[in-house]
Backbone:
């Protein structure tokens, strides 16, 4: 991965490049950014830049033997640590058991999320595991670091989603974060820094990765693929998650009329039109899991937009004309009490879909819940 291949975050790139050029390299760093941000891509580009044999003032060469190995994630001095699942075949899993599968997942989409990785296990994850980094992984890291570097000046231990470390693994790695072996650099890549133990974050230099702007998204996909208006819509829909945007564009899911589906669903549930709800559920259950997830995420967004419309300035809204027209009529049915219930139920449904729940049953039961939520009266009137 080259820095020039990553859109946006120019300040972070400069910070990382300057650290190497000035020989001020921290031995343990934490790349922190939201799901779908450039945090992993930047960490990989930094690791490659550190070990490039012919680096320029601003980037890796991309052609030396070290760069080629880092680019396909196969360098012998790049140790990858990832959340794993227990399966029938592997009851004491470590990253090495699944690293080939993870390489394929990430190289297809460097902005992929933990949910996407867990989802890739499909029916192997019937129990709904969320991915864990176990104590056995920490033991494995200690064992690997007891050996000398193979060929690189800087051996890299990259821990992807370290917030999934269990307590035993975290405690066993604390000393290594503070005093790693000579020539070893820890790069941690987190989606949620608040879930990490303070004893871990206090030992790391934090690199804050910014969200992608609409202009960044256009730069990544090209002006021919996206207009500025479409880029803004996708950014708002996905919360600036480039991984989700990539999947949407691949599957042409951006052509789905989400507002039409959402408004129809809300009308049917408010009217308690069971026959209409059944037809609506039938249509949605025939769509792919990614489309169903996208619709549920969009529904959460629309509930939040209703709250903003009700309690804040309309200038804060991130809606298009169709969505705004719907909000003006629908927002009176969303308030501070039922909005929490609706959002929690939608989030639960996303998790259930990821665990291969029966879509027809799930969406029908969710619709019945929505009937109750939309008819819930506000206890206190707004003054």
Residues:
């Amino acid at each position: 991965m080259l820095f020039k291949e990553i859109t946006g975050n120019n300040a972070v790139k400069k910070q990382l490049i300057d650290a190497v050029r000035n020989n001020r390299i921290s031995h343990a760093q934490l790349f922190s950014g939201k799901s779908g941000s450039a945090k992993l891509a930047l960490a990989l580009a930094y690791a490659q830049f550190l070990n490039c044999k012919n680096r320029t003032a601003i980037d890796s060469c991309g052609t030396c033997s070290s760069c080629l190995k880092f680019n396909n994630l196969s360098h012998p001095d790049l140790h990858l640590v990832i959340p794993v699942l227990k399966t029938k075949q592997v009851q004491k899993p470590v990253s090495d058991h699944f690293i080939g599968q993870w390489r394929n997942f990430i190289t297809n989409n460097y902005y992929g999320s933990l949910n996407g990785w867990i989802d890739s296990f499909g029916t192997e994850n019937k129990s709904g595991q969320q991915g864990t980094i176990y104590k056995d992984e920490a033991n494995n890291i200690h064992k690997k670091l007891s050996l000398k570097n193979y060929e690189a000046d800087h051996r890299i231990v990259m821990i992807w989603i370290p917030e999934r470390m269990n307590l035993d693994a975290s405690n066993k790695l604390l000393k290594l974060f503070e005093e790693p072996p000579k020539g070893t650099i820890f790069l941690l890549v987190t989606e949620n820094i608040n879930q990490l133990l303070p004893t871990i974050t206090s030992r790391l230099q934090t690199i804050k990765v910014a969200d992608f702007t609409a202009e960044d998204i256009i730069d990544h996909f090209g002006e021919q693929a996206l207009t500025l208006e479409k880029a803004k819509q996708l950014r708002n829909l996905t919360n600036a998650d480039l991984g989700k945007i990539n999947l949407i564009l691949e599957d042409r899911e951006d052509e789905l009329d989400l507002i039409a589906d959402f408004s129809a669903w809300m009308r049917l549930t408010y009217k308690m039109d069971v026959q209409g709800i059944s037809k609506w559920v039938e249509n949605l259950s025939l769509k792919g899991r990614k489309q169903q997830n996208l619709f549920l995420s969009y529904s959460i967004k629309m509930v939040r937009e209703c709250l903003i419309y009700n309690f804040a300035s309309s200038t804060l809204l991130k809606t298009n004309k169709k969505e705004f027209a719907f909000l003006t009529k629908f927002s009176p049915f969303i308030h501070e009490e039922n909005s929490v219930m609706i959002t929690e139920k939608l989030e639960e449904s996303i998790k259930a879909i990821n665990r291969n729940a029966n879509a027809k049953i799930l969406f029908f039961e969710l619709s019945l819940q929505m009937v109750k939520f939309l008819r819930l009266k506000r206890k206190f009137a707004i003054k």
Q: What stands out?
A: The radius of gyration is 23 Å. The chain has three domains: 3-208, 214-253, 256-374.
